[in-house]
Amino acid sequence: MSDAWSAPWSATEFEARLRQIGAERYHDKHPFHGLLHDGKLNKGQLQAWVLNRFYYQKSIPLKDASLIGRADDIDLRREWIGRITDHDGGKDGGGGIERWLILAEGVGLDPKYVASCDGVLAGTRFADKPLLEAVASSLTELFAPDLHKTRIAALLEHYPFANDKTLAYFRTRLTQAPADVAFGLDYVLRHARNRDQQEACLAALRFKTDVLWAQLDALHHAYVAPGLIPPGAFVPEDRR
Fold it and tell me: Which of 145, 168, 146, 144 lies closest to 156 in space, CA to CA?
């Protein structure tokens, strides 16, 4: 934590520090993503990624609902509620969670099993943060569009399950994520008024990148090398 009397950074410098976290720590640099994007994951490893990542995806609207419940700012609530709809969908469905389950079915998993979150690794779970820091942690979306583009191209090139239907989640995020992050970034830049608040936002964003990295660490350890699947976790067919 910085000295309480330290002057706050300018908005330009603060934003640069937020973006630098992605340049240094975003999980697109993890070796597991390298295997995924190079087409080197086998079917079971790919299924394990889809299954474990679903836990993260289904937790997003829960985190967002918690954030809204703590927000006195009506403009923030009005804006943020759209994120819940993006993931949960409307009365007729159609949200990101449903699209992820289509992806799961495409890689040969039972969507009901995926939705139950049975078999999820302990390393995929994560904690919540206070309001301003929770908004700041959402800024990993700053770094996501390029990853989504790379992932779409790589999956289409290397994996037979990939098509417009199974990759709909990623294509939708190409348009949703920039709008989400524009609001979130503006909110953080305006509301982190002193150095301590700015430092807390940077720490929250680092924590979020740590969470994403740790999830891939857990996947790599269980399903790639050394391949030690913990008790109760998903076991691919070729390991049964």
Answer: 168
Rounded Cα–Cα distance for residues 210 and 29 (Å): 12
pLDDT per residue as tens digits for the range 83-137: 999 999 988 888 999 999 999 999 999 999 999 999 999 888 765 568 999 999 9
> Could you tell me where the DSSP H helices lie in the chain?
11-25, 31-37, 43-69, 74-88, 96-106, 111-116, 131-137, 144-158, 168-191, 195-223
Strand partners, 90: 93
Percent of the chain with pLDDT over 90: 89
Residue with tokens 């009397």: 5
Say which residues have a Cβ less than 8 Å from residue 147's Cβ, sequence separation at least 6.
26, 28, 33
Structure tokens at 1: 């934590």
What pTM did the predictor assign? 0.92
